[in-house]
Amino acid sequence: MTEQAKEPKVEDIKAAAEGKGCPVQKALYFVTEFLAGPMCGRCFPCAMGTYEARIRLQNLVEGNGTDADLRALRRIATDMIDASFCKKGKDTGKFILDWMATDVYREHAEGRCPDMQCASLIEYRIIPEKCDMCGACKDVCKYLAIHGEKRKPFKAGYFPFEIRQKRCTRCGECIKVCPTGAIVLVTVKAKEPVGV
Amino acid sequence: MAKTVNLKIDNREVQVPEGTNLIDAAAAAGIHIPNLCYMKGMKGIGACRLCLVEVEGMKAPMIGCTTKVREGMSVNTNTEAVQETRKFVIDLILSMHPLDCMTCTKAGVCNLQKYAYDFELKESTFTRKKFGYPIDQANPFIKRDPDYCVLCGRCVRICKHQGTEVLDFNGRGVGSRVVTANDKPLQESSCTFCGSCIDVCPVNAILEADRWRKGREWEYEKTSSVCLSCGNGCSISVSTKDGSVIKINTGAPDGSIERTICAVGRFGFDSLYSEMRVRKPMKRVNGELTETTWDDAIKTVADQLKAAGEGAAMVSSASILNEDAALLKKLAEAAKIKNVDSSASLYSGYDAMKSGGADLEAADLIVLAGIAPDQWKRVLPALDAVVRKKVNSGAKLIVISSGDPKIAAKANVVLKGDEVKMLMELGQAIISKGTKAPKEMVEALAPVNPSDEAVNAAELFMAAASPVILAAPSLYKAAANLSLIKGDVVAVPLEANAKGVVAMGLTSGGKKFSEILSTPTKVLYAIGEVPVSKRPATDFLVVQASHLTDLATQADVVLPATTALESEGSIIDWLGRVKQVSMASVPSGDAKQHGSVFIAVAEAMGTPLKPVKDTDVKKAAKAKAKAAFSPFKKDAGHDVDAQSLMDETNKMTINGSRLLWLKELECAAVSA
Fold it and tell me: Is B650 domain-assigned?
């Protein structure tokens, strides 16, 4: 029993992966956990294929994905289904391939996460017109990513509030406290400009 | 005979024995199914997935190495789907393999290179992975470079299969590595440096340590020959470049159980070029050994032999070739020398050396009677590997020994105690189960009361279809009685051509080997590396050897002989088969093969010898003793310590090669 507790089964990982919001992240989580746990390493397509798939999925999640990654993933997944020794490898291939049917992977390769989950593909922005410079967001930001100055009636000029993207961890706390709805979540490489 | 099965592979009709797998069946039809992890003669593991083929009527592709042939099967080895899978796997492997084929020693014989060529992969389409593992090259024998490893597992499997159990995987999948226990360098593990892993590695991950810039496979000339270092007489394949030996690999056919050679056979060739080689004839002048000409040396020896007449004696190593042995016999007759013997009589009676052979491949029970092969002590190492391989693939093992051999740990039943007594108990246990046996044997064994172990062993013996008894020569007659009931019995000599030397008639009508050495002689002519280090009482000592042995330094005349790798002829190996020894390397200096020296000596004595014909050897090899009942007794006077005899006869090979490094390491380990 203890050994079973140590080594998670493919189904458990699948269930845990469902907790992730974005399909690409689901696949990445699944593949990473699969490599760490149930993969036996006995046959080459599965052992080497999942390793390569992890690299490619990582690329997609981090916003470095290209068409080549999509092609590679499709090839890995189909070949794993065909050539793996056991059901575990075939299931992993299927898990990756199931989402290939939708456009989610392609969207990632083009730099958009439709579910707004992949940190490298999204960013928070403050729309200056809506911002009333209350400073609530600045107070709540743990990472000191928001710069700006609270409006003081006696002052003429001011620093507008803005988010430093390099510091922002996309934790989403600021958006919760903004009273005016001035903070929006946008895709970095959006098809149409958002909130401008 | 096994049933044959008809099937179609790529539309070619193939007929193979039942139970063959698809890779072997396709090979029989001249079709190569790509594979990296499959080893002929061992069970397939289906890891590399390169051998996937499509079988008509099957939805999914099948693995060639584990799928057995069936009547009427139709196999397609070359469909687009399986080609894509193969290309995919090779592509993935290439992504973690250094692409330096231009300087790689294995170029030309590398399977990965071959498949990359076949699938037109200039480089991997996948992400390049680099690991930068440390290289294990602290020993002069085997270099392991994990960066080149394709994780096929062949080295791990062969190492486990032959019982050395040094290598294993650490981790799984990409990033795993072939390691020794605790990832120690090889010399700190139980490695015997037999190099079986070198033979099976498909890439540059495991290689002879000194191969860098020594030419690549296509530059080598390959010669099939035999290693004469011990009683196993293993087939070897010698690679030479410009007349000098570069490497030695096992020469047994692919898939054969005898496909193992030991460190002495593989790396001992260094001694060809050692400083201890005798390259010119030498003669003692004023107490010093000084170089002389062949003519002078031959004349001196001939004169001495002539003068001594019957007072002369000859002793020979039992690892000289058949042709040389026959010529020596003729020389002795011409010179009227009665006392001529080979070192075979140290450990064997002449009759035992005329014993027949056995089919090791078919054997399902092996009985070791009084012999203790040991890879680590280098006592008949190849035999130890064969026995361990047999046991690992399901054969049973009975060890009969008064000592405590390492191989006993592998045995199903160990009969510990006096070997003859144990053989009698085993025989009686078999007879008491109602098996038919010759009348004399039943009578002789009637008073014996078998122990429980003997009864267990008897059950194994009865259950076996073709038991093979491998006996020490001194126990041959006693053990042969069992073969009257069932199976084959083989007397295992300690020197490569002991059976051949005896078959060629090099047997003493007068004194035996040890007697010759212990009684004073007028002239003593010692041939080959005889296990003697102190000059026996003799007026004139002639030593004819390839190296300056201890005995040679005390000789009056030293004649340079060729080594086995520089000689041409044949031997009769321990299983009674005639094996051809071919000249792989040019003789060093003025060295001559033993036989041609004998001819020259005889000529100088005025009694020319007739040459030996091939047919003489073949005829002699065919003559086998017929099995008949003989009393359960041990041949007296043939007790030697196998290890010290082997150390003695291989001393020059070991001291003159990189094996000295290993020997010193072992000595240091013992003293520490």
Answer: no
Considering B273, B302, B327, which residue would you say is the last residue of a domain? B273
Of A43, A48, A75, the CB nearest to B174: A48
B322 CB neighbour count, 10 Å cutoff: 29
Predicted ipTM of the assembly: 0.87
Burial B154-172 (b: 16+ CB within 10 A, else e): bbbbbbbbbbbbbbeeeee
Domain ranges, residue B47: 4-78
Kindly give, in sequence order, each residue whose CB lies less than 8 Å from that of residue B664, ignoring residues fewer than 6 positions away: none
The model carries a pTM of 0.92
- Number of separate domains in chain B: 4
Distance of CA B590 to the CA centre of its chain: 29
Residues of A with CB under 8 A from a CB of B: 35, 39-52, 55-56, 72, 75-76, 79, 82-85
Scored b (16 or more CB within 10 A) or e, B569-601 reads bbbbbbbbebbebebbbebbeebbbbbebbbbb
Domain for residue B649, yes or no?
Answer: no
Residues B534, B563: one domain?
A: yes
How is residue A8 written in tokens?
Answer: 């998670």
- Shared-domain flag, residues B138 and B19: no
Positive/negative CA dihedral, B347, B490, B197, A41 = negative
pLDDT tens-digit readout, B339-360: 999 999 999 989 889 887 899 9
The answer to whether B11 and B54 have CB atoms below 8 angstroms apart is: no
Q: B240 with B380, same domain?
A: no
Q: Do A44 and B89 touch (CB under 8 A)?
A: yes
